[in-house]
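Sample entry (364 residues):
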Amino acid sequence: MRRYGEYGPPAGSIPPDKKMWAKRVENFWMRCLDGGSNPPISTTKGMDLKQTIMRKVHLILLAFILTGCMNNSWWEPRTLITNDKNGQPLGRYQFTYDERGNKFTETGDIWDQTTATWIRDYRISYSYDIYGVRTGALKEKRDSLSAKWLPVSRVICNYSQETYRPETETHQVFLADKQLWEDSFRDHYIHDANGRLLYIVREKWNNGEFDRDIALRGKFLIKAHVITPVTGWENSIRDSYFYDDEGVMTGDQVDKWDRVNNTWVPAFRYTQTRDRKGNIVVEDEEKWDEDNGSWSLMGQYTYLCDNHGNTVETRYIPVTEDPEASYYLVFYYNNRQSLIGYYIGDTGTFPGHSGTAEYFRLKR
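Predicted structure, serialized as tokens:
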């Protein structure tokens, strides 16, 4: 299992401090134009003036964002390559960006050993509002017969109106037989008063239907599709984050929901080790042993970073090698302010024992 390490701005989007600053400037102008210390503008000529000024304000804010006057340069991943335990290629993941620097698409390819070529597996397309804030993502897979892209799942993002931080992300799956979208997961992002991420709580949607094996008189086993009147959101996973006295994240713990006892029980724990520059270089992964009531080390994630705090190589080293096990890699970048590969979020996941990443600089 692999989870989040440190939460930062969504990959390819404008960092929260930029978005908040831009929104505050716009709100200031709106208050001034609607009255403020002056009488409200109510005439037709006044409304034309208001609209003209607001258009100019939007152009100025957009110029700040695009030219980088509001912050230094920003890094984004261009290509990821993952490998198996023998160093053979597994997956290739490529990213494109729009003219504002927002992530536009993510594509995933699988390595075919027989033909020694990459085969396209999926595509994720991202959508944004007029401020460059991500509003959602759509994942598609190519149909082998028609070669058309068919919808698989999507994510709908919602933000706090007060802080502009991520608040919820709703995941839906596409039901091809019904041509409908159905809720699957919903993630809640919970921050403290200082803006630090405390929890991500994932709920799963119970549609009242499930499959169950039923034994008849102990002789026959049939598969039954059971429909119940109970529907709604249920707790599933909770990720809790820990910080030192200086506010630097030191690790996190993943808990799962016990439906029988209605309580959270520990599942995995991650402890970070950083170098002198503050880069995460090692993460220990531990699993909770319910029988012994203690943590046992499962493996280590190691990270090699460049001079800009971007992970250029990551590797998972298990304590006990399991040929059937699947590991998921995470790549930190922008000095740990951003990451991709977390299973909670709107990017893909990157299975493999090791992986490398290439980045490019965005100037905003």
